[in-house]
Amino acid sequence: NAGVTQTPKFQVLKTGQSMTLQCAQDMNHNSMYWYRQDPGMGLRLIYYSASEGTTDKGEVPNGYNVSRLNKREFSLRLESAAPSQTSVYFCATPLNTGELFFGEGSRLTVL
Amino acid sequence: GQQLNQSPQSMFIQEGEDVSMNCTSSSIFNTWLWYKQDPGEGPVLLIALYKAGELTSNGRLTAQFGITRKDSFLNISASIPSDVGIYFCAGRYGQNFVFGPGTRLSVLP
Fold this sequence. Notes:
Chain A is mainly beta and about 110 residues long. In chain A, about 0% of the residues lie in helices and about 45% in strands. Chain B has strands at about 5, 10-15, 20-25, 30-35, 45-50, 55-60, 60-65, 70-75, 85-95, 95-100, 105-109. In chain B, strands 2, 4, 5, 9, 10 and 11 form a six-stranded mixed β-sheet that branches. In chain B, strands 1-3-8-7-6 form a five-stranded antiparallel β-sheet, with no helix packed on it.
């Protein structure tokens, strides 16, 4: 998905380890989102950033921190990973017409 | 948190058949969106609906924004193998998006 790039695409962690998921968009959009996707459930919002330097909690923020240091990048950090954080993580940004445009996802397994 | 109800959860159809799936909510939305997700990929937008009653087509896909603004449906005509995947609905109000759990579609040759 050109426009929203997520890294890494795959990661395996041990319980208690930390890591940062990176997201970058080249669309010059103000808003960026982090979602997690679990089997049988819809995408759930972790954090949202309306603009550079601002972030807001979503539906499931516990265990995560985010950073929006510039307009292009929005990172998601797990300080002490837990098995419950095994999931697929998606970064997204709204198009000018309002629809969300997603990255390809980062698949995280916590052992 | 708020969620949408999507039905059916999964369906198996023969190639060439038509497909219908829907999405309902207890809340009103300003926009309804339909996405398709292939294995290992992110959701890709299929159709966006912006006002109640709107009927929009994209090739073999047709979607409608319910009059009550609390539901939407997606139809796929003459299914083909590449239609396999998970279809998600999403409702938008302001900067907030709420997603359904998805309908998993399998197409048998």
